[in-house]
Specification:
The structure holds two protein chains of two kinds. Chain A is mostly beta strands. Chain A has strands at 4-7, 10-13, 19-25, 33-38, 45-49, 53-54, 62-67, 70-75, 85-90, 98-99, 103-107. By secondary structure, chain B is an all-beta fold. Chain B has no helices and eleven strands. Chain B is globular and about 50 Å long. The chains are: A mainly beta, B mainly beta.
Protein backbone atom coordinates (compact mmCIF):
# COMPACT_ATOMS: atom_id res chain seq x y z
CA UNK A 1 0.00 0.00 0.00
CA UNK A 2 1.09 3.56 -0.68
CA UNK A 3 1.52 5.58 2.52
CA UNK A 4 1.08 9.35 2.52
CA UNK A 5 2.82 11.45 5.17
CA UNK A 6 2.03 15.13 5.69
CA UNK A 7 4.11 17.67 7.53
CA UNK A 8 3.65 19.47 9.73
CA UNK A 9 0.69 17.88 11.54
CA UNK A 10 -0.29 21.32 12.80
CA UNK A 11 0.72 24.83 11.97
CA UNK A 12 0.04 28.25 13.47
CA UNK A 13 0.08 31.24 11.14
CA UNK A 14 -1.28 34.75 10.79
CA UNK A 15 -3.54 36.35 8.22
CA UNK A 16 -1.40 37.40 5.28
CA UNK A 17 1.28 34.77 5.85
CA UNK A 18 2.56 32.47 3.13
CA UNK A 19 2.10 28.87 4.19
CA UNK A 20 3.43 25.63 2.76
CA UNK A 21 2.26 22.12 3.63
CA UNK A 22 4.17 19.11 2.39
CA UNK A 23 3.06 15.61 1.51
CA UNK A 24 5.38 12.68 0.87
CA UNK A 25 4.43 9.37 -0.75
CA UNK A 26 6.07 6.08 0.19
CA UNK A 27 6.70 5.40 -3.50
CA UNK A 28 6.57 7.41 -6.69
CA UNK A 29 3.03 8.43 -7.62
CA UNK A 30 3.89 10.69 -10.57
CA UNK A 31 1.42 13.59 -10.32
CA UNK A 32 -1.52 11.52 -9.02
CA UNK A 33 -1.98 13.71 -5.96
CA UNK A 34 -4.97 15.72 -4.75
CA UNK A 35 -5.48 18.24 -1.95
CA UNK A 36 -8.61 18.86 0.12
CA UNK A 37 -9.69 21.41 2.71
CA UNK A 38 -11.99 20.49 5.57
CA UNK A 39 -13.62 22.80 8.07
CA UNK A 40 -15.11 21.53 11.36
CA UNK A 41 -18.41 19.71 10.88
CA UNK A 42 -18.23 19.98 7.10
CA UNK A 43 -17.41 17.62 4.25
CA UNK A 44 -14.00 17.94 2.62
CA UNK A 45 -13.67 20.24 -0.37
CA UNK A 46 -11.40 19.63 -3.34
CA UNK A 47 -8.74 22.31 -3.85
CA UNK A 48 -6.13 20.85 -6.19
CA UNK A 49 -6.14 17.77 -8.43
CA UNK A 50 -3.37 16.16 -10.46
CA UNK A 51 -0.80 17.81 -8.18
CA UNK A 52 -1.11 21.32 -9.60
CA UNK A 53 -4.51 21.86 -11.25
CA UNK A 54 -6.71 24.33 -9.39
CA UNK A 55 -10.31 23.21 -8.99
CA UNK A 56 -12.84 25.60 -10.47
CA UNK A 57 -13.96 28.23 -7.97
CA UNK A 58 -10.95 27.81 -5.67
CA UNK A 59 -9.08 31.08 -5.04
CA UNK A 60 -5.79 31.51 -6.90
CA UNK A 61 -3.88 32.00 -3.63
CA UNK A 62 -3.92 28.18 -3.43
CA UNK A 63 -1.37 26.33 -5.52
CA UNK A 64 0.07 22.85 -5.68
CA UNK A 65 3.36 21.50 -6.97
CA UNK A 66 5.50 18.39 -7.03
CA UNK A 67 5.75 15.01 -8.66
CA UNK A 68 7.17 11.63 -7.81
CA UNK A 69 7.17 11.40 -4.02
CA UNK A 70 7.26 15.01 -2.80
CA UNK A 71 4.42 17.50 -3.07
CA UNK A 72 3.50 20.88 -1.62
CA UNK A 73 0.35 22.91 -1.09
CA UNK A 74 1.01 26.62 -0.82
CA UNK A 75 -1.33 29.36 0.32
CA UNK A 76 0.23 32.62 -0.84
CA UNK A 77 -1.54 34.98 1.56
CA UNK A 78 -3.63 33.43 4.32
CA UNK A 79 -7.20 34.64 4.66
CA UNK A 80 -9.40 34.13 7.74
CA UNK A 81 -11.49 31.53 5.92
CA UNK A 82 -8.40 29.39 5.18
CA UNK A 83 -8.01 28.18 8.75
CA UNK A 84 -8.97 24.53 8.40
CA UNK A 85 -7.48 21.05 8.10
CA UNK A 86 -5.81 20.07 4.83
CA UNK A 87 -5.41 16.55 3.45
CA UNK A 88 -3.44 15.14 0.57
CA UNK A 89 -4.65 11.99 -1.22
CA UNK A 90 -2.99 9.74 -3.76
CA UNK A 91 -4.86 8.35 -6.76
CA UNK A 92 -1.94 6.49 -8.34
CA UNK A 93 -3.61 3.26 -7.27
CA UNK A 94 -7.29 3.50 -8.21
CA UNK A 95 -7.95 0.28 -6.31
CA UNK A 96 -6.52 1.62 -3.05
CA UNK A 97 -6.74 5.33 -2.47
CA UNK A 98 -5.00 6.74 0.61
CA UNK A 99 -5.05 10.06 2.45
CA UNK A 100 -2.39 11.81 4.44
CA UNK A 101 -3.05 12.22 8.16
CA UNK A 102 -3.98 15.87 7.79
CA UNK A 103 -2.46 19.26 8.64
CA UNK A 104 -4.42 21.52 10.97
CA UNK A 105 -3.86 25.18 10.17
CA UNK A 106 -4.61 27.41 13.15
CA UNK A 107 -4.60 31.12 13.80
CA UNK A 108 -1.52 32.43 15.59
CA UNK B 1 -26.84 21.24 -9.08
CA UNK B 2 -24.89 18.12 -8.22
CA UNK B 3 -26.03 16.71 -4.89
CA UNK B 4 -25.23 13.68 -2.78
CA UNK B 5 -27.36 12.94 0.28
CA UNK B 6 -26.43 10.14 2.68
CA UNK B 7 -28.86 8.44 5.03
CA UNK B 8 -29.13 5.36 7.20
CA UNK B 9 -26.65 6.16 9.94
CA UNK B 10 -27.36 5.48 13.59
CA UNK B 11 -26.44 3.51 16.68
CA UNK B 12 -25.73 -0.19 16.29
CA UNK B 13 -24.26 -2.81 18.61
CA UNK B 14 -20.92 -4.50 17.91
CA UNK B 15 -21.45 -7.41 15.56
CA UNK B 16 -24.52 -5.78 14.06
CA UNK B 17 -25.31 -4.60 10.56
CA UNK B 18 -26.33 -1.35 8.96
CA UNK B 19 -26.98 -0.19 5.40
CA UNK B 20 -26.18 3.35 4.31
CA UNK B 21 -27.68 4.97 1.24
CA UNK B 22 -26.51 7.87 -0.88
CA UNK B 23 -29.04 9.54 -3.17
CA UNK B 24 -27.46 11.28 -6.15
CA UNK B 25 -28.86 14.01 -8.36
CA UNK B 26 -27.71 16.59 -10.86
CA UNK B 27 -25.45 14.31 -12.90
CA UNK B 28 -25.57 11.04 -14.83
CA UNK B 29 -25.17 8.65 -11.92
CA UNK B 30 -24.90 5.54 -14.07
CA UNK B 31 -21.68 6.84 -15.66
CA UNK B 32 -20.05 7.70 -12.35
CA UNK B 33 -17.56 5.83 -10.23
CA UNK B 34 -18.52 6.27 -6.58
CA UNK B 35 -16.70 5.93 -3.28
CA UNK B 36 -17.27 5.91 0.45
CA UNK B 37 -14.86 7.73 2.76
CA UNK B 38 -15.13 7.76 6.55
CA UNK B 39 -13.83 9.88 9.39
CA UNK B 40 -13.68 8.65 12.97
CA UNK B 41 -14.36 11.30 15.64
CA UNK B 42 -11.40 13.68 15.83
CA UNK B 43 -9.44 11.69 13.25
CA UNK B 44 -8.46 11.99 9.60
CA UNK B 45 -10.07 10.80 6.41
CA UNK B 46 -10.02 7.09 5.55
CA UNK B 47 -11.02 5.69 2.18
CA UNK B 48 -13.49 2.79 2.56
CA UNK B 49 -14.14 1.54 -0.94
CA UNK B 50 -15.10 2.28 -4.53
CA UNK B 51 -17.48 0.95 -7.17
CA UNK B 52 -16.96 1.53 -10.86
CA UNK B 53 -19.75 2.27 -13.31
CA UNK B 54 -21.38 -0.74 -14.92
CA UNK B 55 -19.92 0.42 -18.24
CA UNK B 56 -16.48 0.02 -16.70
CA UNK B 57 -17.32 -3.35 -15.18
CA UNK B 58 -19.08 -2.35 -11.96
CA UNK B 59 -16.24 -3.79 -9.91
CA UNK B 60 -15.52 -2.90 -6.31
CA UNK B 61 -12.37 -2.41 -4.24
CA UNK B 62 -12.12 -2.01 -0.48
CA UNK B 63 -9.70 -0.84 2.15
CA UNK B 64 -8.14 -3.64 4.19
CA UNK B 65 -9.95 -2.82 7.48
CA UNK B 66 -13.40 -3.35 5.90
CA UNK B 67 -12.71 -5.97 3.25
CA UNK B 68 -14.98 -8.99 3.72
CA UNK B 69 -17.35 -7.07 6.04
CA UNK B 70 -18.53 -4.14 3.91
CA UNK B 71 -20.16 -4.29 0.47
CA UNK B 72 -20.71 -1.38 -1.89
CA UNK B 73 -23.49 -1.63 -4.46
CA UNK B 74 -25.47 0.67 -6.70
CA UNK B 75 -28.93 0.93 -8.19
CA UNK B 76 -28.62 3.08 -11.28
CA UNK B 77 -32.40 3.05 -11.79
CA UNK B 78 -32.75 4.85 -8.43
CA UNK B 79 -29.56 6.93 -8.68
CA UNK B 80 -28.55 5.48 -5.35
CA UNK B 81 -25.31 4.14 -3.87
CA UNK B 82 -25.28 1.75 -0.93
CA UNK B 83 -22.87 0.62 1.75
CA UNK B 84 -23.82 -2.60 3.50
CA UNK B 85 -21.86 -2.90 6.73
CA UNK B 86 -21.79 -6.25 8.54
CA UNK B 87 -19.92 -7.52 11.60
CA UNK B 88 -19.52 -3.95 12.79
CA UNK B 89 -16.77 -3.11 15.27
CA UNK B 90 -16.41 -0.18 17.65
CA UNK B 91 -13.60 1.11 15.44
CA UNK B 92 -16.08 1.50 12.56
CA UNK B 93 -17.62 4.43 14.44
CA UNK B 94 -17.31 7.38 12.05
CA UNK B 95 -19.02 9.86 9.81
CA UNK B 96 -19.43 8.16 6.44
CA UNK B 97 -19.25 10.32 3.33
CA UNK B 98 -20.41 9.41 -0.15
CA UNK B 99 -18.37 10.94 -2.94
CA UNK B 100 -18.07 10.85 -6.70
CA UNK B 101 -14.78 9.70 -8.19
CA UNK B 102 -14.17 12.37 -10.82
CA UNK B 103 -11.89 11.25 -13.64
CA UNK B 104 -10.02 12.91 -16.46
CA UNK B 105 -8.22 10.96 -19.14
CA UNK B 106 -4.93 12.36 -20.36
CA UNK B 107 -2.62 10.75 -22.96
CA UNK B 108 -0.26 9.72 -20.17
CA UNK B 109 -2.78 8.48 -17.65
CA UNK B 110 -6.14 8.71 -15.92
CA UNK B 111 -6.46 11.10 -12.99
CA UNK B 112 -9.04 10.52 -10.23
CA UNK B 113 -10.20 12.68 -7.38
CA UNK B 114 -13.14 12.90 -5.00
CA UNK B 115 -15.64 15.60 -5.88
CA UNK B 116 -18.32 16.38 -4.84
CA UNK B 117 -19.01 14.98 -1.36
CA UNK B 118 -22.21 14.41 0.55
CA UNK B 119 -22.79 15.93 4.00
CA UNK B 120 -22.04 12.64 5.76
CA UNK B 121 -23.98 10.33 8.05
CA UNK B 122 -22.83 9.27 11.52
CA UNK B 123 -22.49 5.60 12.39
CA UNK B 124 -21.92 4.78 16.05
CA UNK B 125 -21.01 1.23 17.02
CA UNK B 126 -21.41 0.79 20.76
CA UNK B 127 -22.94 -1.60 23.24
Amino acid sequence: DIQMTQSPSSLSASVGDRVTITCRASQSISSYLNWYQQKPGKAPKLLIYAASSLQSGVPSRFSGSGSGTDFTLTISSLQPEDFATYYCQQSYSSSMYTFGQGTKLEIK
Amino acid sequence: EVQLVESGGGLVKPGGSLRLSCAASGFTFSNAWMSWVRQAPGKGLEWVGRIKSKTDGGTTDYAAPVKGRFTISRDDSKNTLYLQMNSLKTEDTAVYYCTTVARVIRPWGVYNWFDPWGQGTLVTVSS
